[in-house]
Amino acid sequence: MNPTNHRERHVLRVVGLVQGVGFRPHVHALATRLGLTGSVQNRTGDVWIEIEGDPRTLAEFTVQLERTPPPLAHIKSLERTRVPPQHDASFTIHASLGDATHPGEIPPDIATCPACLRELRDPNDRRHGHPFINCTDCGPRLTIIKNLPYDRERTTMAGFAMCPRCRAEYDDPSNRRFHAQPVACPDCGPTLRLTDNHGTTLAGDPIPELARRLAAGAIATIKGIGGYHLACDATDEQTVQRLRILKHRDEKPFAIMVRDLTAAESLAHLDDAARSSLTAPARPILLAPRRDSTSIAASVAPDTDLLGLLFPYTPIHHQLLALTGPLVMTSGNLSDEPIVHLDDEAITKLGTIADVFLVHDRPIVAACEDSVVRFAADGPILLRRARGHAPLSEPLPIPLRVPTLAVGGQLKSVFALGRGATATLSPHLGDLDAAPAHAAFLIMVERFEQLLRIHPACIVHDLHPDYAPTRYALERAASDGVPLLAVQHHHAHMAACMAEHGLREPVIGVTFDGLGYGDDGTLWGGEFLVGDLATVRRAAHLAPIGMPGGGAALREPRRMAIAWLLAAGVDLHDNPFSRGLPRPFLALIEQLITRKINTPTTTSIGRLFDAVAALNGVCNHTSFEGQAAMRLESLAAQSPDELGYPVDLVHSSDTLVLDPRPLIRAVVADRTAGIAPTRIARRFHTALVDAVVATCTVLREATGLTRVVLSGGVFNNAILACETPAALARAGFTAHRHRRIPPGDGGLALGQLAVAAARQAR
Ligand code: ZN
Ligand code: ZN
Ligand code: FE
C-alpha cells in the first residue's frame, strides 16, 4: 500500500510550558526523522503544529511527542483537528506569532545541562571553559527576561551582539541552540571579573584566583542566576563564624554547594529520591540527614541534624567547585533583606562582608533565591518555591471570572497572579518585615503584571490588618478602584492544598501553622475547617492559650511552656522544666498570664510545639521561626515508634476543642521519670497524628466528608507530613498533603486565588 494515497494533515495545538524550552526544534527533529511534512509555530503562549503524512506515522508522531517531550517542557493539553493535506515539501519552523494580550508563560531558570557541561569541559570545544555556556535546554530565563514574548531582544542579553558562529547556531533549526535566547561564546558573551571589595579588578584568571583565595579563608560574593551569593570554605570553622557575625545570622543553617554526588554522599545520607532531586534541572537546596563525622565546620548548621546541600547550577559554579571543596553558599543579603541582584548594590551592601567579588556583565532583572526541598518517607516537601520552580503556573480548580492578584502573607512572601484557570506564582520573596523586602515585593508585582499583561480587576489579601501585603492591597484597590476580597489565613492554606490536588468539592481542611489571623481577631493555628473553596466553617480547633509577652513568646518557647503548665494545673515550682528557670522570671510570666497583660490568645500548633520543646529541655530560646519544632522533629526521628500522649476532644457548642492538657501533664511526668527526650518528642508527634485522626473521625460522622487536606507550616515537618495522611488512610479517609506547593505561607497566595475564583463564580 502506498502511504501517500492516505495522506492526512492534522493541526495540533499544544498548551503548557512549551515556549523557551526548545520545543520547536524538538518538533522539527521528530517530524523530519519520521519523514513528515508541515510546520510548527509559537502562537501567543501555545505551540501550533501542522503535520502531514500517512495516518500511522502521524499517530507515532503524537505518541512520541507526548511520551518524550523536550526535558523542560510540560504539555498540559494537546488538541487535534483534521484539515485537508497541503503537500508541502518539508517541515519548517515559522516565526513566532505574538499576541500582546496573551504572552504565554514565564519560563524558570534551569541548571546547566549535561550536553553544555560536556562542552564546557572539552578542550576542543569552542566554548571550553566559557562561564556563560547555555542552550535551549538550560540557562537563565526568568532572571534575564525584561518582557515577553521571550526573545533575545527582550532579555538582558540584548546588549551582547551574537558573533557569526553563535548566530548560525541560533538560526539553525537542527542545532541544539536554535533560538536559545541567552546563547553566547567567548567571542560574544559576557565576561567574568574578580574584584576586591572596592570594585578594583584583581589580576589572574578569575575562577582559579577565587578558588585560591577561598582556600586561604576569604569570604566571596559570587554573582549567580538570581542574585549574589556569599561563599566561603565550608570546612573552615573560623571563616564560617566570621561570615555569621558579618551577616548577622545566629543559628539559621547555611547551605553547602558540593561538586558531585560522591561529595554529597560523604556529607549526608541520600536515597534515590534525594539524589535525583539534587541533580534535577531545578537544582533546589536539598535538606538531607547529615553524616556524623564530616569535615564540615560546626557553625555551618549548628542546630540541626539536616544539612542543606546544593549542586552547581551555573557554569561558573561548575568551574569553581572543580577547584575547591564544599563551599557555604548563602544568599547575599543583610539579615532579613532580599537577596542582592543589582551590581551597584553588591559592593555597597556586601562590601563589608565579602573580601572578593566574582562578577560579570550580564544584568539580572529579577532576583530569585534558591528553592529548598526535603523528603519525607512518602515524597518531597517543597519548603521554598523559587529558582527552577517559580514561576511555573498552576491550574486552578475553578476559573477566575476576572484577572486577579493575590498578595499572600507577610512571611515567606509569595504573590500570585491569576487569569482564567491559570495561576502564576512569584518566587519566594522572603519576609516582608523590613522596608527593602517590601520594596522588592512592589517591584516584583509590577514586573509580573507587565510580563503577563495582567491588570488585576480584583485583589485578594489575608485578613491580618498589619500584614504589609494587606496594606498594599487596600491602597492599591482604592487607587485602582477595584474590588477587594479578604480570605482567612487558614482557609487560604486549605484552598492551596485543594488547588494543588484539583479539588473543589467540600473537604475537611486540617491547617496547622505558626500564627494566622482568625475570624474572631485572635491568632489561630490549629484549625479544622469544613467546607469548600467558597466558604468554610471552623469545626474544631486546639484549645486557646495565652502567649505571655506576645512577640517575646515567639522568641522564647519557655513562655509557652509556662502558659501550658499553668493551664494544665502543674505545680510551677516543682517540675524538671521550671527548676532550671529563675524564680522572678516564672513569677513575671505567671503575672502576665493571670492578669492578661500583653498576652494574646492563640490556638496555634506551632506554639504547642514551642511549649513541648521547652518542657522537653531542648529549646528555651529561638533565633528563627520554626526552630523549636525543628529540634523536636529531629529528636523524634531518632526514636522508634511510641504510643502517643493523650489529647482530649471536648464538644463546645457546635465546635470541637482539642484539649492538650493531658498531653502536657504526661510530658512532665515522662521528664520527671527520666524518659529520654527523643522518646518524649516521638510520643508528642504520635499524639498529634492520633488527634488529627480522632477529630476527623468525629467530623466525618457529623458531615459525611471523607476527604481531608493537610496544610500549614507545621506540615513542613517530615514525620507529620508522612504519617498523618497514612494514619488517615488507615482510618478510611482520602488524605492529601502538599507536594509541589509549600505547606507554609509560601502557598497562601495560590489558596487566596482559588477562594477568589470560587467566590467570583457565585
Ligand atoms: Zn545546555
Ligand atoms: Zn559567539
Ligand atoms: Fe500560615
Tell me what you see in this structure.
The chain has 762 residues and is of the alpha/beta class. It is built from 22 helices and 30 strands. A 10-stranded mixed beta sheet has the order 6-13-7-8-12-9-11-10-14-15, sandwiched between helices. It starts with 7 loop residues before the first strand and ends with a helix. The model has no long low-confidence stretch (mean pLDDT 93). Bound molecules: zinc ion (2 copies) and fe (iii) ion. The site of fe (iii) ion has 7 residues, from helix 13 and strand 22.
Question: Could you give a quick summary of the protein structure above?
Answer:
The chain is α/β, with parallel strands linked by helices and 762 residues long. A 10-stranded mixed beta sheet has the order 6-13-7-8-12-9-11-10-14-15, sandwiched between helices.
Map the helices and strands.
Blueprint: E1 8-17, H1 23-33, E2 37-43, E3 46-53, H2 55-67, E4 74-83, E5 91-93, H3 114-121, H4 164-171, E6 192-196, H5 206-215, E7 220-223, E8 228-233, H6 237-247, E9 255-257, H7 261-267, H8 272-279, E10 285-289, E11 306-310, H9 315-321, E12 327-331, H10 343-350, E13 356-360, E14 372-376, E15 379-384, E16 393-395, E17 404-406, E18 416-419, E19 422-425, H11 435-452, E20 458-462, H12 468-480, E21 484-487, H13 489-500, E22 507-517, E23 523-531, E24 536-542, E25 545-546, H14 551-555, H15 557-567, H16 583-594, E26 601-602, H17 605-615, H18 627-636, E27 648-652, E28 655-659, H19 661-672, H20 677-703, E29 707-711, H21 718-730, E30 734-737, H22 748-760
Helix pairs in contact: 5-9, 13-22, 15-16, 15-17, 17-18, 18-20, 19-20, 20-21
The structure holds zinc ion (2 copies) and fe (iii) ion.
The site of fe (iii) ion has 7 residues, from helix 13 and strand 22.
